[in-house]
Write a structure and sequence with these properties.
Blueprint (H helix, E strand, L loop, with lengths): L1 E5 L2 E3 L5 E8 L7 E7 L6 E6 L6 E3 L7 E6 L4 E6 L8 E9 L5 E4 L3 E5 L2
Parallel strand pairs: 2-11
Antiparallel strand pairs: 1-3, 3-8, 4-5, 4-9, 5-6, 7-8, 9-10, 9-11
């Protein structure tokens, strides 16, 4: 099983980034996908989640209206489009796959750094 994030980097306030997470080794379309982030000295927090089909999404209040999560079940990938970035969005962003079942499974990527600074 692999989740490989990419697309992080340094961006100025007000700028945009698009994160990608490529999945392999499991049946991607069966899993809900999420993006989490962890800033230095803080706990990991949920940023956005998308259901198996892409028909339902939810966002943390802090990113609503600025971030958009999407997925491609053919390419086995999930994306996070981040607009109007703020310094407080600086964090390591992690991709998560979660299977809702009687035997839940959860997989994590290694993370990608996003730094918002002038």
């Amino acid at each position: 099983v692999q989740l490989v994030e990419s697309g992080g980097g340094l961006v100025q306030p007000g700028g945009s980034l698009r994160l990608s997470c490529a999945a392999s080794g499991f049946t991607f379309s069966r899993y809900a996908m999420s993006w989490y982030r962890q800033a230095p000295g803080k706990e990991r927090e949920l940023v956005a989640v998308i259901d198996r089909t892409g028909g339902s999404t939810n966002y943390a209040d802090s990113v609503k209206g600025r971030f958009t999560i999407s997925r491609d079940n053919v390419e086995n990938s999930v994306y996070l489009q981040m607009n109007s970035l703020k310094p407080e969005d600086t964090a390591v962003y992690y991709c998560n796959a979660f299977l809702y079942s009687t035997h839940p499974q959860s997989y994590w990527g290694q993370g990608t750094q996003v730094t918002v600074s002038s």
